[in-house]
Amino acid sequence: xxxxxxxxxxxxxxxxxxxxxxxxxxxxxxxxxxxxxxxxxxxxxxxxxxxxxxxxxxxxxxxxxxxxxxxxxxxxxxxxxxxxxxxxxxxxxxxxxxxxxxxxxxxxxxxxxxxxxxxxxxxxxxxxxxxxxxxxxxxxxxxxxxxxxxxxxxxxxxxxxxxxxxxxxxxxxxxxxxxxxxxxxxxxxxxxxxxxxxxxxxxxxxxxxxxxxxxxxxxxxxxxxxxxxxxxxxxxxxxxxxxxxxxxxxxxxxxxxxxxxxxxxxxxxxxxxxxxxxxxxxxxxxxxxxxxxxxxxxxxxxxxxxxxxxxxxxxxxxxxxxxxxxxxxxxxxxxxxxxxxxxxxxxxxxxxxxxxxxxxxxxxxxxxxxxxxxxxxxxxxxxxxxxxxxxxxxxxxxxxxxxxxxxxxxxxxxxxxxxxxxxxxxxxxxxxxxxxxxxxxxxxxxxxxxxxxxxxxxxxxxxxxxxxxxxxxxxxxxxxxxxxxxxxxxxxxx
Length: 494
Known about the structure:
Elements: H1 2-25, H2 50-66, E1 70-78, E2 89-92, E3 99-108, E4 114-117, H3 119-122, E5 125-131, E6 137-146, E7 151-156, E8 177-182, E9 190-201, E10 216-219, E11 231-233, E12 239-247, E13 256-261, H4 262-275, E14 285-289, H5 292-297, E15 306-312, H6 316-319, E16 327-331, E17 334-335, H7 339-347, E18 354-361, E19 364-371, E20 381-382, E21 399-402, E22 407-411, H8 414-420, E23 426-431, H9 436-439, E24 447-451, E25 454-455, H10 459-467, E26 473-479, E27 485-491
Antiparallel strand pairs: 1-3, 1-5, 2-3, 3-4, 4-7, 5-6, 6-7, 8-9, 8-11, 9-10, 10-13, 11-12, 12-13, 14-15, 15-16, 15-20, 16-17, 16-18, 18-19, 21-22, 22-23, 23-24, 24-25, 24-26, 26-27
């Protein structure tokens, strides 16, 4: 019995020890000390190589080196009811105020206080405040603005500032890595990354002026309201663009942002600092891109260059024997394939500067030297002199239908010619949907004034030329009721 008692006592002791251990650990385990806690696996699933680490380090280095050159700009300005499609970050002051407060970004471009930003950030500004990356604040004055490029320069009284390095936007390539640095949504010193997704992007209609220069760098680096005026930089830390606008239906980032090339921005900034305004030169032409049919009708091997549709009377082009219908292929050996390419190049030149144009005329290349002139607000677009071949008021209205191109045309009487301010032409009275003429933008009410560079006085003139152009591309010159003329290429089926 005694032995059983001893065994029972020992069993109770063992059970007590085990039960105590359970109570301590909760699940039968001894709770480790803080120093003994270890989480996660022993090593990363992928070991980065030297190239990947260097790539990552490039972003880190650019962020550290360039961010001090980017400033936040706070503005109180006259209310204009919106930012015109740009990514300025406005605040409503409330209370029926005629003023708005907004926030944007800027780039320090000199160590003595000049800062480059967007015109839409500082236009109509009554008060401008600059906050540096080190949180110092300065009042700033507007040195000058250029609405046609949406650029502006402001100045603060400071020295030894970290000026940004300005690169060369002419050397950019689609697919190149870039970073956007600015103050989106009033969040200071924000860095995003992406690639250049397109170059020479125009026709965005962000600048509400027929002389506006739109030749943007497109990027998928995130740009939001408040990034306006900030820097788009490459992985060397060189500023290659001024962040300006976003493509958005919501007002915030949904895919693409746009930046002004730094080469254009530098030229504008220098003019603004030196003169307070831009002494820009102009060629004095209205131009349009060339499509495949128009190129073929002009005898070009492929669509290239821009066609001159109007000449400004007394302008630089008129003085240099540049003519309506000329195709500008190059400017100073720079290939021109879109209107904004020529426009942005000329926008960086001052009045009085000479540029050389390579022109396609009558099936061959010629050159013309143009001395750029300042813009004259009062100039009118020149009209080509035409012989006064008036049609009789009572001439019967003749009509012809050209099924092969989908157009129906009729003669014009004298009253109609006067209404259109024309001396000759035939009126397009109907266009078949999805026809050749329809696809080339021809519509009812448009007048065909020339075909194959020959004046058209009646429908028979046009019929003869079309019959002789079977299997070829025919060059038409057309005009609308507002006095706007343009060239159209039409492929005439055999």
